[in-house]
Design brief:
Belongs to the SelA family. The protein is of the alpha/beta class. It has 20 helices and 18 strands. It folds into three domains: about 80 residues, no CATH class; about 110 residues, Alpha-Beta Complex (Aspartate Aminotransferase, domain 1), CATH 3.90.1150.180; about 250 residues, Type I PLP-dependent aspartate aminotransferase-like (Major domain) (Aspartate Aminotransferase, domain 2), CATH 3.40.640.10. Helix 4 packs across helix 5, helix 6 runs antiparallel to helix 15 and helix 7 packs parallel to helix 15.
Length: about 450
C-alpha cells in the first residue's frame, strides 16, 4: 500500500470549505451532527484505501466529490420519512404489511387535529377535573354494539391477553382445539394464554367439538370458556362447533365467564352484500358472551386498536387494572376511532368507510378505473391488458371470500417484468406495490382509489 494514496484523503476542513458542504449546512441540520457524519465518510474512504478497494491512486478532488455525494445521500435519507406512502396494487384490501385499513378522510383529519392541539383526552369540562380517556368512545361503542360497557387498548392481541390475565391467571380456560389459531407474525392463541398465566384446557378435535366436550371439562378450577373466531382459516366437510348461545345456556354459572375473541371487528353486515358469513359484533353481544374482543383496524375500518366490550361489572374491573395503563392508546388513535365509529350511525355512511367500501365495491366500478389506468399507460407506450381477477379481503379475515375485480397487466419491450416491478417499487414516489404474473406486472384496481390513478401511471417511466 502506497502512503501517498492516504495523503490524497482530504481533511475535514478541506471538505467543509467546499460549496456543496455549505449547501448541506443550509438544510438545517445540527453542524456537530453533520461534522460527525463527514468524519465517518472520510473514515469509510480511508478503509477503502486500506482494504484495496482502489486499483489506482485516487485523486483528492475525486475523493472530495465522492465523500460529499455520500454525505448528501445520508442527509437526504435522514430527512425522508421512514414511514413511506405507497399505492397498494395487490388487491388485498386489509394488507397487513401495508397498514391494513385505510382511514376515512374524517378520521385522518381528526387524528391530525388531536395531534396538533390540546384536547379533552383526560379532562372533564363539566367538573373541571381529570376525566377518563375511555369516555371518548365508550358511549358510541355501547350504542352501536348493544354492550353494557366497552374500553379500548392498543391492539386485539393485547385485548385478549388483558382479559385472560385479569380474569383467568392461574386458572383454567376451555378452548376448542379447532379454534387454537395462529395469527400473523407467529402469534398463537395458546402462547398468548400461556403468557397471561391462564391454563389451557383443549376440548374436542380439530374438526369437531360437541357440547358434551365443554360439559365434561367444566370444574371448580375453570375460570372461563373461550370462543375464538377462526377468521384466518376455515374448515369444510365433516365439521361441527358449538355456538356461544349454546355454551352460555349450558354453563349456568356466573363465576365461569364466556369470552369470545371475534378478531376482525365487523360492524357492517357484509352477508347482506352476499360477501362471506363474518359474524358482527352486535350478533356476538346478543349471543350472551360476557366479554368480546375485536380489532379496530380490520373490517371495522379504523386505527389500530383492541376493543373490549361486555358486561359493565367486568369492564369496570379492567379499567381499574394496572395493565389498563400499560395497554392504553393515545389521543390520535381515540380521535380516529371516534370518527370511524360515528360513520356506523347508518348503513349508508358506513359504506363510505374505505375498508367497507373497498370490500363491497361492485366489479364494474373497479373496471372503469382499470380502463382509465390502462389508457394512461398506453399513452406512455406501454402494452396493457385489462383482465378479470380475484381480490382478497385480507387482514386474516374472510379467507374463503374472493372478490370479483379487474386488474391491468403492463409490459414494455426490452424491459423485463422483474425490472419494471422493481422500478415502480423503488424509483417512484409513492411506490407502487404490485405483483408479477406470466411475464407481466399486474395491478389490481380494487385497492387503487380514483385519486391514485395519476400517481400509479406516473410511476411507470
Amino acid at each position: 500500500m502506497h502512503n501517498e494514496w492516504f495523503r490524497a484523503l482530504p481533511s475535514i476542513d478541506e471538505v467543509q470549505k467546499h460549496e456543496n458542504y455549505e449547501v448541506l449546512k443550509s438544510e438545517g441540520l445540527d453542524e456537530v451532527r453533520l461534522t460527525n457524519w463527514l468524519r465517518e465518510e472520510v473514515e469509510r474512504m480511508r478503509n477503502h484505501i486500506r482494504t484495496g478497494k482502489f486499483s489506482v491512486q485516487p485523486e483528492k478532488q475525486a475523493l472530495i466529490d465522492d465523500i460529499l455525494h455520500r454525505l448528501t445521500a445520508r442527509v437526504l435519507t435522514w430527512q425522508k420519512p421512514r414511514l413511506e406512502q405507497v399505492i397498494n396494487a395487490t388487491g388485498t384490501v386489509l394488507h397487513t404489511n401495508l397498514g391494513r385499513a385505510r382511514l376515512s378522510d374524517e378520521a385522518a383529519e381528526a387524528a391530525k387535529e388531536a395531534g396538533r392541539r390540546y384536547s379533552t383526552i383526560e379532562y372533564n369540562k363539566e367538573t373541571g377535573e381529570r376525566g377518563s380517556r375511555q369516555k371518548v368512545v365508550e358511549d358510541r361503542l355501547t350504542t352501536l354494539t348493544g354492550a353494557e360497557s366497552a374500553m379500548v387498548v392498543n391492539n386485539n392481541a393485547a385485548a385478549v391477553y388483558f382479559v385472560l390475565q385479569a380474569f383467568a391467571s392461574g386458572r383454567k380456560v376451555i378452548v376448542s382445539r379447532g379454534e387454537l389459531v395462529e395469527i400473523g407474525g407467529s402469534f398463537r392463541v395458546s402462547s398468548i394464554m400461556e403468557e397471561s398465566g391462564a391454563q389451557l384446557v383443549e376440548v374436542g378435535t380439530t374438526n369437531k367439538t360437541h357440547l358434551y366436550d365443554y360439559e365434561r371439562a367444566l370444574n371448580e378450577e375453570t375460570a372461563m370458556v373461550m370462543k375464538v373466531h377462526t377468521s384466518n382459516f376455515y374448515m369444510q366437510g365433516f365439521t361441527q362447533s358449538v355456538s356461544s348461545e349454546t355454551i352460555q345456556e349450558m354453563n349456568g354459572r356466573e363465576d365461569i365467564l364466556l369470552f369470545e375473541d371475534l378478531g376482525s371487528g365487523v360492524m357492517y353486515d357484509f352477508s347482506k352484500e352476499h360477501i362471506g358469513q363474518e359474524p358482527t359484533v352486535q350478533q356476538a353481544v346478543k349471543s350472551g358472551a360476557d366479554l368480546i374482543t375485536f380489532s379496530g383496524d380490520k373490517l371495522l375500518g379504523g386505527p389500530q386498536a383492541g376493543i373490549i366490550a361486555g358486561k359493565k361489572s367486568l369492564i369496570d374491573q379492567l379499567k381499574k387494572h394496572q395493565l389498563a395503563r400499560v395497554l392504553r392508546v393515545d389521543k390520535m388513535t381515540f380521535a380516529a376511532l371516534d370518527e370511524t365509529l360515528k360513520a356506523y350511525i347508518s348503513e349508508e355512511t358506513a359504506k363510505a368507510l374505505p375498508a367497507v367500501r373497498d370490500v363491497i365495491e361492485p366489479a364494474d366500478v373497479v373496471y372503469e378505473r382499470a380502463l382509465l389506468l390502462a389508457d394512461k399507460l398506453q399513452a406512455k407506450h406501454y402494452k396493457t391488458e385489462v383482465y378479470p381477477v380475484k381480490s382478497q379481503v385480507g387482514g386474516g379475515t374472510m379467507p374463503e371470500v374472493e372478490l370479483n375485480s379487474f386488474g391491468v397487466c403492463v409490459a414494455k419491450e426490452s424491459v423485463t417484468a422483474a425490472e419494471l416491478e422493481r422500478t415502480i417499487r423503488l424509483q417512484s414516489d409513492p411506490a407502487v406495490i404490485a405483483r408479477i404474473q406470466d411475464g407481466w406486472v399486474c395491478l389490481d384496481l380494487r385497492t387503487i382509489a380514483l385519486d391514485e390513478i395519476e400517481d400509479a401511471a406516473a410511476a411507470f417511466p
